Amino acid sequence: MALCLGHPRHGYYMKQDPFGAQGDFTTAPEISQIFGELIGLWAASVWQMMGEPRSIRLVELGPGRGTLMQDMLRAARALPGFREALSVHLVETSPVLRERQRATLAASGAAPHWHERIEGALEGPAIVVANEFLDALPLDQFVRTPEGWRERLVGLDQNGALTFGLAQYAPSPTDLGPARDQHLKVPKSATADFGAGEGWGEGSFDAASASPTKAASVSNPSDPSSGPAGHLLPQGREEDAAPAGSVFEQPLAALEAVSAVARHVAAGGGAGLFIDYGPAHSGFGDTLQALKRHAFVDVLAEPGDADLTVHVDFARMAQAGLAAGGAAHGPVTQRDFLLALGLRQRLEALSRRATPEQAASLARGVQRLIATGPTAMGELFKVLAVGDPTLPLLPGFDLHRLPEQS
Ligand code: SAH
Predict the structure, then answer these.
(1) In ligand 1, which atom is closest to the CA atom of 28?
(2) Angstrom distance (rounded) from CA 148 to CA 217
(3) Ligand 1 centre and the CA of 67: distance in Å?
(4) What is the 3-state secondary structure (H, E, C) of the chain?
(5) Average pLDDT, stretch 5-21?
(6) Is the model's pTM score more than 0.85?
(7) Burial class of 318 by CB neighbour count within 10 A (0 to 12, 13 to 18, 19+)
(8) CA 94–ligand 1 middle distance (angstroms)
């Protein structure tokens, strides 16, 4: 996944701008300007809660076309003190998208700074936002077999085509993390979804030769203590154990991103806001998917030419934020978050100044952002904030104040 998205020459994000109707997918800031405006106001009120520090970094992780930051900065003008205090820092690995961000933000007067890695962007008081960033970070998958957990790897079949297989040896306990424990519940759909045609059971291949970068994390066959071992089986009653075929995902890069932000704001002040699609509760299941021209495609069919994403396990992201010393707010649904921030009021204000066509288009965008249903943006997308624990409950998470939901 890391190579498919981030290879310097062939990586999906490195060579193109994938957004919009002509591209492969559309994100919330590209659907409605109100999305970024509300997040800009969210950032401004966090800054006020922090006691209005005279200098603060506004950091965005994976800014895409720069649209979210552009809309945030426009909204931030409502609070001149915040606009003057902030400096813009963008964490972006793609040279194509950096250029695009430069063009989008040229008129904002923001003079952004770009960083390759999150750590480089974090210094002093900071407000961090990340929309559809965590879903682009690579993760490891493990499949439950009758012999125990095995890492799922990509290799070549007899015809030289890419195929999934399983590592021959058990992973180390630290690779698995919570899959060893009993607190993950197995959703009914997790195994039902797991098609036999996926090939995981059709043989395994040598992990070391298939994936050299993984070799270090896979058990050493010459060390018997790292072989298929009873201690890797989930402890507890037999009927609670994950059934064969269950897939456990270990999103180390995303957990580390949330931890880094939480650790920083707990010490330096501020908060981080993560918006993405995924469940509020942990479970088993294979969530890796590929998108091209707004349709799902086979995840192995077009490496580097289709977007690869995973669903974000928000419960574990919140735990990572807490473990790093931050406070966790949410997760809440995108719908509840945006409504609590005043989505309807902003829509009304903009519509009063718009032509009937513009007003209809604004209303359609807003409706898409908050639509309900298991695959609709308002419900599938969750919002999690990790903040300096000395701050009060952050805006958008005090849902008892949620306005009319209809
Ligand atoms: N936030 C934007 C774009 C989301 S797409 C929006 O909502 O429209 C994911 C973004 O993350 C892209 O800008 C991509 O280039 C960037 N990205 C992906 N992997 C990254 C990584 N490891 N480090 C930094 N940026 C990354």
Answers:
(1) 7
(2) 16
(3) 12
(4) CHHHHHCCCCCHHHHCCCECCCCCECCHHHHCHHHHHHHHHHHHHHHHHCCCCCCEEEEEECCCCCHHHHHHHHHHCCCHHHHHHEEEEEECCCHHHHHHHHHHHHHHCCCCEEECCHHHHCCCCEEEEEECCHHHCCCEEEEEECCEEEEEEEEECCCCCEEEEECCCCECHHHHHHHHCCCCECCHHHHHCCCHHHCCCCCECCHHHHCHHHHHHECCCCCHHHCCCHHHCCCCCHHHCCCCCCEEEECHHHHHHHHHHHHHHHHHCEEEEEEEECCCCCECCCCCEEEECCEEECCCCCCCCCEEECCCCHHHHHHHHHHCCCEEEEEEEHHHHHHHCCHHHHHHHHHHCCCHHHHHHHHHHHHHHHCCCCCCHHHHEEEEEEECCCCCCCCCCCHHHCCCCC
(5) 92
(6) yes
(7) buried
(8) 8
Q: What is the pLDDT of residue 403?
A: 56
Asked if residue 1 has its Cβ within 6 Å of ligand 1, the reply is no
Task: Indicate the residue type of 18.
Answer: P
User: What are the structure tokens assigned to 335, written together?
Assistant: 């719908």
Q: Residue 132 has which token pair?
A: 């559809």
Indicate the range of 19-28, 238-247, 326-335 predicted with least confidence: 238-247
With a 6 A CB cut-off, is 94 part of the ligand 1 pocket? yes
Encode pLDDT of 172-214 as tens digits.
Answer: 877 777 776 544 544 444 333 333 333 333 333 333 333 322 2
DSSP β-bridge partners for residue 163: 155
Q: Looking up tokens 């509300």, which residue turns up? A: 38
Residue type, 353: R
> Quick one: tokens of 73?
């900065």
Tens of pLDDT, residues 75-121:
999 999 999 999 999 999 999 999 999 999 999 999 999 999 999 99
pLDDT tens column, 364-391: 999 999 999 999 999 999 999 999 999 9
